[in-house]
Description:
Blueprint: H1 3-9, H2 23-34, E1 45-50, H3 53-62, E2 74-80, H4 82-115, E3 119-120, H5 128-135, E4 142-150, H6 164-167
Helix pairs in contact: 1-4, 2-4, 3-5
Amino acid sequence: MEFFEVLKARQSVRGFAPSPVEEEKLGAILEAAGSAPSAGNLQAYEIYLVKADRLKRALARAALDQHFMAQAPVALVFCANPARSERRYKERGARLYSVQDATIACTYAMLTATALGLATVWIGAFHDAAVRGAIGLPEDILPVVILPIGYPAEKPEPTSRRPLDEVVHTVE
Length: 172
């Protein structure tokens, strides 16, 4: 898929087909995430790959009972590693740059999944402690995004976007 087509095609999908995600596609998604830019090239993030149904159900409960996400054959949990960024960038690195690193990596994964004909939805509403407990995250790792990935079982209508003249502010 051409890049601008990928951007137009990406939608949040909350219905997943039971078909598994091929390992080569999953590998391409993870490679893309790993190639994302990061502050100081520190890659102050961790990615947890979740395939087990019981763990996906636990993540869905942690995500305020968004049970649809457990239908996806794969979920990636993108986490900030604040200590990794803090070493170079102090408090701002720990508080902000590590979170930005995780979200950029997730965006690369999401767009790659779209380009490969897969569906995703960005899950940011969850209880940190419940996600941590569901997949055994260390206390110093901060969950930022859960990204369910699979083949779509639905085709949502395109959502409206704010006009650019409301979003873009020229400063001269």
